[in-house]
Amino acid sequence: MRKLTLYSRPECHLCEALLADLLPLLSADDSVETVDVDSSIALERRYGLRIPVLVAGDVELSGYPLDHERVRRYLESK
Q1: Dihedral sign, CA of 46, 50, 54, 58?
Q2: Fewest CB atoms less than 10 Å from the CB: which of 25, 30, 48, 64?
Q3: Which domain holds residue 54?
Q4: CATH number of the domain to which 32 belongs
Q5: Rounded to 5 degrees, what angle do the CA atoms 15, 18, 23 make?
Q6: Three-state secondary structure call for residue 9
Q7: What is the pLDDT of residues 34-68, one digit of tens each?
Q8: How many CB atoms lie within 10 A of CB 15?
Q9: C-alpha 27: how far from its chain's center?
Q10: Could you write out the DSSP letters of every residue in 12-60?
Q11: Are strands 2-8 and 59-62 parallel, antiparallel or unpaired?
């Protein structure tokens, strides 16, 4: 199972749009955890206004708009 993390904020329309673009690329073995950057001072400092940010482990895959090609390459490599 591959786990992706989407750093976002509640009611973030760009975050919702990125997630909507991402979902068709995922298989049943993939999961996406949404993390509110405001839940942690460290996350807020790290991502601040850059949200949404999609990561896999320590690798930043995409911000907004979704980098379809990079995400697709990552998913195919795992």
Answers
A1: negative
A2: 48
A3: 2-77
A4: 3.40.30.10
A5: 120
A6: coil
A7: 999 999 999 999 999 999 999 999 999 999 999 99
A8: 22
A9: 15
A10: -HHHHHHHHHHGGG--TTEEEEEEEGGG-HHHHHHHGGG--EEEETTEE
A11: unpaired
The pLDDT tens digits for 2-13 are 999 999 999 999
Distance CA 59, CA 12 (A): 22
pTM (predicted TM-score): 0.94
At 5, the amino acid letter reads T
Instruction: Give the chain's radius of gyration (CA, Å).
Output: 12
Rounded CA separation 63/78 (Å) = 20
Q: How many domains does the structure of the chain reveal?
A: 1
